[in-house]
Design a protein that fits this description.
heterodimer; A: 252 residues; mainly alpha; 8 helices; B: 152 residues; alpha+beta; OB fold (Dihydrolipoamide Acetyltransferase, E2P); 2 domains; heme (chain B)
């Protein structure tokens, strides 16, 4: 892992990995969603609205997986002070928040015809909304420390503390009576018919690849931003240097 | 002890403390954070007559009886145990409201022990089965996951 403490090594790896993840993820996700819209039979109770499953479930898993990534990066930052860890955590936050928002929006659209309501304050829905707010808080905190200067540790501690919400989201439908159904896919097996399960797994893999591609893209952009800032700072120092130190510039 | 190991221990201790705090908090919320009462919970601690509560459970097979006014239905909600609660509701039924399916009703108990519902929500279970496969050999209801309607 410490090989990639050198940004050059990381960038040369990311350069070919980014388009690979992004395009394979995009093709696989779109393929799975189109398959889910065209080729899958309506559900016995939900009817056509079962098709939203292929966006809702991967988005929910990645929203939660994104925060797990932030928490792991934060721990790596605090313990090993790995230079890429804070960049990785910042890069994950925005796509993670986007997928969480997609999950909430598609769940709401599914809930209207299925449950008869857009929104209820049950355990699962509320804890997922809390995750969205945690992402917003993390992004604000990480941006403030990046812009105003300050320790990256603050955002890292927030990232670790916020991780407590992930097991709560996962267990919310088991611990409490909730309107949201219990998990369909558990360690013991799946109660989703195979004709839904395979496109769902394809969509999950596709969304994950896409997520990885976006994160690498954002990491490269953040590294480039840091390099630009460092260069500008150096130039500003040069400009402030006493005139006598730069006779060549004066005579030219 | 190297500084790196010290930080590792500190982060692990912090994680343990956070997880413990979260577990204690959610454990105390256990009964307050329920979205609805099951029939057996309602039987054990009956809410006051007229108090707004939610009742959740399964619609008992064969219990849906439309009333002569054409808009009111009566049905019985069952839970994980034997106790049942009769429900009366006037209004438009959700599409997924069928016998044997999950339901969550807003409303209150009246003096006769009948739950007067003001709003019905259908609760979907965790089984996803295509319509044309329903009832075929490989898709008998007994193969479905045991529908858990709430905590035991």
């Amino acid at each position: 892992m410490h090989i990639y403490a050198n940004p050059k090594r990381f960038l040369s790896l990311a350069q070919w990995l980014t388009p690979l993840l992004f395009w394979s993820g995009l093709v696989l996700s779109l393929g799975a969603i189109v398959w889910g819209i065209i080729n899958v039979a309506p559900d016995r109770l939900m009817g056509e609205s079962v098709r939203i499953l292929f966006i809702h479930v991967p988005a929910a898993w990645l929203g939660m997986g994104g925060w797990a990534g932030i928490a792991i990066s934060s721990a790596v930052l605090l313990i090993w002070k790995h230079p890429l860890a804070s960049i990785a955590a910042r890069a994950i936050a925005l796509p993670g928040m986007t997928f969480t928002a997609i999950c909430l929006a598609t769940g709401s659209i599914w809930g209207r015809p299925t449950w008869g309501t857009w929104w209820v304050w049950d355990g699962r829905l509320t804890s997922m909304l809390v995750l969205l707010f945690l992402y917003a808080g993390y992004i604000a905190l990480a941006q403030a420390t990046a812009r105003e200067g300050g320790s990256v540790k603050i955002a890292a501690i927030f990232g670790i503390v916020g991780a407590i919400n992930i097991p709560i989201i996962n267990r919310s439908v088991v611990w409490w009576n909730s309107l949201h159904q219990p998990p369909s896919i558990t360690a013991g097996g799946s109660s989703i018919d195979a004709s839904y399960l395979w496109p769902l797994l394809a969509a999950v893999i596709g969304f994950s690849l896409l997520f990885g591609g976006i994160v690498l893209m954002r990491m490269r952009a953040l590294i480039a931003e840091q390099q630009v800032e460092a260069r500008l700072r150096r130039r500003a120092l040069d400009d402030d240097a006493p005139v006598a130190a730069r006779p060549m510039a004066e005579s030219a | 002890m190297k500084a790196k190991h010290q930080r590792l221990v500190l982060v692990i201790l912090a994680l343990v403390a956070i997880v413990a705090a979260g577990l204690i908090a959610t454990w105390t919320l256990r009964n307050q954070a329920n979205y609805f009462y099951l029939p057996e919970q309602m039987a054990a601690e009956p809410p006051a007559v007229g108090q707004a509560v939610r009742l959740g459970g399964m619609v008992q097979a064969g219990s849906i009886t439309p009333q002569p006014d054409g808009i009111t239905v009566k049905f019985v909600v069952t839970g994980n145990e034997a106790s049942t609660v009769p429900v009366r509701y006037s209004g438009i039924l959700p599409d997924l409201f069928v016998e044997g399916s999950g339901v969550v009703a807003d409303g209150s108990l009246d003096a006769d022990g009948v739950f007067q519902a003001t709003n019905l929500l259908a609760k979907h279970d965790e089984n996803y089965v295509p319509r044309e496969l329903e009832g075929l050999e490989a898709h008998q209801p007994s193969d479905y996951a045991d529908t858990t309607i709430g905590i035991d």
